[in-house]
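Supplementary material to the annual report.
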Amino acid sequence: MSAASLRGQTAIVGIATAGTGAAPGRSAIELLGEAALAAIADAGLALGDVDAIFAATSTHAMPVLSVAEYLGIRPKFFDGTNIGGSSFEMHLLQAALALQAGLCDVALIAYGSNQRTNGGRLVSMSEPQWQEAPYKPRHPITAYALAASRHMHAFGTTREMLAEVAVAARGWANLNPDAFARGPLGIVDVLASRMVSDPLTVADCCLVTDGGAACVMVRAERARDARHKPAYLLGGAGAAWHRSISSMPDLTITAASESGPRAFAMAGLLPAQVDLLMLYDAFTINTILFLEDLGYCPKGEGGRFVQGGAIAPGGRLAVNTNGGGLSCVHPGMYGLFLIIEAVTQLRGAAGERQQPRCEVALCHGNGGTLSSQVTAILGSGATL
Amino acid sequence: MPASGGGTVYAITVNRTREGSYNLALVDLDEGPRMMSRIEGVESVKIGSRVQARIADLGGEPMIVFDPQGEA
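Predicted assembly:
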């Protein structure tokens, strides 16, 4: 049995978000629950149809149990794998396995956070790393700043190139009425922003927002009856090489260089056949690293690749069309929002930012400090 | 493994906070392992700079920090 046997066997048929941006007075589980109910309705299903839960949050030690109790359902399959922001791309794979094995029929993947209005800073359950903690790194930006410093040293990447990623994200956000950060942003603005951890300014960092998100997944034969065009899971793969940044073998090469090729192999596709890239942009350096590691440019060329508006609206490659974690939404763990935008584009429902041809979308989740990398490739019915 | 204390800066950042700035570096020890630490006495150094370990008191705990060697 090969991994390719999973290709096209399951599909996302319901998606929703809730309270993205600022949702004062609302709890993480409320936002998660609202998104879950809306995603189930979007799928044309009832709450009672859900028999599997996949969840990870920044505030629940046992998220599956919290979600099941809050929604009042008794799931017969569940998984609460927490590998940081990429958890939800892994949940897609876990749900696909469980659905295909017949262990469940309707899988709910859900997330919620009120980190913005509840404190205004990144909420994380990540414990300090013993060998790093005495030096007081700021989690997680120090790790990403170190990676950026190494990339600049090794390949001549510049702050202007990093800024180009933030500017492109803002360009997309300006086409998305649901994006939290909108308005003009130029490279000079990014360079002039407050330095947080050299070489990353506050404008090189993702937003701190609230937000819930959920998606519903079923087997392909059931997906044909869905209210909206299904988004089929064509390929998925994860790779994890380290926990702490001091244990990352080469700060310029992420495990996306392993998860990407495996996901493409399962999908039977090449990078050039992807119409939309949703890359987890917790920091501007991420987008550059993932473009390289997923095969869109040679190692070290990511900075030069993004120059001249290449990944902005009207550029040669559509990347993070919702505005990304940098300008759309980032409630602590952003991975599920990559999936929401990919499905929205595959449905042709992305409004002003809709890609004219969107049959294949790649979601790449990142977790921890460049630690876990999970690639999921989704496709329309035309790709089956 | 005996360690000579010599190392080379692999990556470095300066965390800028309201309370002040301090650097954090990943240092490749001459014997192979990499560790997080700080380069003392300077705001930052170039990647590739040679550094030498010493034990310093960091908030009441003895910790390994590094001093720049030669041109920083």
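The two ends of chain A are 19 Å apart (CA to CA).
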